[in-house]
Design a protein that fits this description.
CATH superfamily: Vaccinia Virus protein VP39
Structural class: alpha/beta
Radius of gyration: 17 Å
Number of strands: 7
Strand content: 15-25%
Shape: globular
CATH architecture: 3-Layer(aba) Sandwich
Order of helices and strands: HHHEHEHEEHEHHEHHE
CATH class: Alpha Beta
CATH topology: Rossmann fold
Strand order of the largest sheet: 3-2-1-4-5-7-6
Distance between the termini: 30 Å
Helix content: 40-55%
Largest sheet: 7 strands, mixed
Length: about 250
């Protein structure tokens, strides 16, 4: 397990070396990203201190701080933290492991996690228990996790046929969670779910490539945006890219 954990961490360091904060901030301003942010923003209190665990290049930390929220970031990819500090030395960032957070009990108004916890083969529960520990009573968990949608299954099948490798040098990349699986693990950690919502339908289509992609950094095309909006109304769960969960301690 330590070898696999380290290989995943090194893979993320490689990913962040190939990205920039400017590109990540641009992606945070995309319509699909703003839609997700606007869905969870009402659950954040400006008087509280919030933690994004797995903050990467700090795009969400920066975006929310610009809106007046006191958000701190934590990541185990040191190069991402150094790049973030180079961009803005005032950012409150820490190096650490989401499974062993360097914070006292009950100290944050919320714990934010976007596309992080699915990458650990041991599952989400150990990290969620740490999230529960550091969130104060009445505070919230805000979480996005990939959903096993129809296109996700098609892409995985296509990758397998083509012999494409996973993110790391072993057989595990990420897990997807159904609504029931996600509800069960979040409640097992002690939280009470207040919102469960499908998100980023246009990015589900982005995975197919071709007319659904623009040349810009992970940008979906106008066709993907229009069709994604339609799928959100007609088939919200079969074409859900990632489930947004808001749960309270």
């Amino acid at each position: 397990m330590p070898d696999r954990y380290d290989s995943t961490r090194r893979a993320w360091e490689d990913i962040w070396d190939e990205a920039t904060i400017e590109l990540e901030l641009e992606a945070a301003a995309y319509a699909r990203s703003q839609e997700t942010i606007n869905a969870y923003l009402p659950f954040l209190e400006k008087r509280d201190v919030h933690l994004e665990a797995g903050s990467g290049l700090s795009a969400i930390v920066i975006t929310l701080r610009q809106s007046g929220y006191d958000v701190h970031g934590l990541d185990y990819a040191l190069n991402a933290l150094l790049a973030s500090r180079s961009h803005d030395e005032s950012l409150p960032l820490a190096a650490g492991d989401v499974h062993h957070l360097p914070y006292r009990d009950n100290c944050f108004g919320s714990y934010l996690s976007f596309g992080v916890l699915e990458h650990f083969e041991q599952g989400m529960l150990p990290a969620l228990r740490e999230a529960y520990r550091v969130v104060k009573p009445g505070g919230v968990l805000i979480l996005t996790i990939p959903y096993p949608n129809l296109i996700n299954r098609l892409v995985q099948w296509r990758r397998k046929l083509s012999g494409a490798g996973p993110l790391t040098d072993d057989a595990f990349y990420e897990s997807t969670y159904t609504r029931r699986q996600l509800r069960d693990v979040v409640t097992e950690a002690g939280f009470h779910i207040e919102l469960s919502q499908p998100a980023s339908h246009s990015f589900t289509l982005w995975q197919l490539g071709g007319p659904f992609r623009e040349k810009d950094y992970y940008r979906t095309s106008p066709l993907a945006e229009r069709l994604g909006a339609l799928l959100k109304r007609l088939l919200p769960w079969p074409f859900n890219y990632s489930t947004l969960i808001v749960a309270r301690k």
